[in-house]
Amino acid sequence: MKRLIALLQLSLLVMFIFSQSSCSRSPGALPSQSIPASHQQHIALLLPLTGTYAPYADAIKNGFFTALYEQKKQTGTAPDVTVFDTNGKNIETVYEQAVSQGANLIVGPLDKANVTQLANSSAAKIPVLALNTISENHHKKNNVFEFSLSPTDEARSAAEKAWQDKRRNVIIIAPQTALGDRVANAFTSQWTDAGGTVVAKQSYTTMATLSADIRNVLGIASAYQNEHQIRHWLHQDVRFIPEPRRDFDSIFLVATPAMARQIQPLLKFYFVGNVPVFSTSAVYAGAPNPSVDNDINGILFCEIPWVLTPNQLSPNYLNNIQQQIQTLWPNKSASFSKFYAFGVDAFFLTTALDQLQSNSSSGLPGATGTLYLTPQHVIHRELLWAQMQDGQPKIQ
Hints:
Layout: H1 2-17, E1 42-47, H2 54-75, E2 80-85, H3 91-100, E3 105-107, H4 112-119, E4 128-130, E5 144-146, H5 151-164, E6 169-175, H6 178-194, E7 197-204, H7 210-217, H8 220-234, E8 250-253, H9 257-269, E9 277-279, H10 290-293, E10 300-303, H11 305-308, H12 317-328, H13 337-358, E11 364-366, E12 369-373, E13 379-382, E14 384-389, E15 392-395
Parallel strand pairs: 1-2, 1-3, 3-4, 4-5, 6-7, 6-8, 8-9, 9-10
Antiparallel strand pairs: 10-14, 11-12, 12-13, 14-15
């Protein structure tokens, strides 16, 4: 097997060497099952290939080049690509180096601070497909496009989904962390803009306090206090069944798989198991595991096609790419699956940006969702929705 993988990697390298001259072709609508040929491009791929984020950058790079090789195989064309390590370097210096070497499109950087710096730089004169979002309250140049796997985008999608499902009054349950706050705030903003009401929000910290936290947000904690008072007044035990609040019709849950497996049973225990729970992809471990995921049955969550429908992707060339990645990097393709998919879509966006700009209603079917370009030059990902049933995700 190791010999086979080595031979496959060598063949991909040879294909890359011979793919460096590309022919010109005008961009157009993407065929549903075929890859568009590349127009003349020299792409600079800016990633932190060393340092803390190196494993993620490596997966993005490998996804990017695997997509490039598939394009080369199907169309006979591929762009020139030069890779630059951004770790510990001034991003504007790296950008200028890329331009001096002939780049006419930048893909990257990955770090939010670098994206924000480059997006505001007077030096940014050629198009930039940034692999993150810029920091809040910062402007960007018109030739900068933002593409990311941001969980706040998923939170906004969850708000849209809940609203489409005729829900209007929500309880938010989220971890007491900076990320938990950002995700909850993104949901709240989208929800209230649509006209929805946030009835209550509950933060949690550890599993040890989860039961008390859930009782608190459901209004059961005060009910237990009333029970104590009644027993005191009557001087006898009374049979007590707690009644949760009834002023909400949905729950937005921000949680890891481990925390969700504790929270969802608590919601059922406290008699709100029939209330729909919406969440992000963070609630799903990324592969079916019924023995433990029965505990999160009923939760609705959004996820990328690459994870939710592996080897059943559309267009079909995405299946070819996914299978190559699984073969070449069997030990990493699962752990970093979303970043391989991110790299794949980043490559195909390099040939689709013109089309998406000229027709904002057209979408690019991708590994991370159907991709649309907003007027603010942000790539919006339309995700798949699933519900956990019998410990496995079922597509909605």
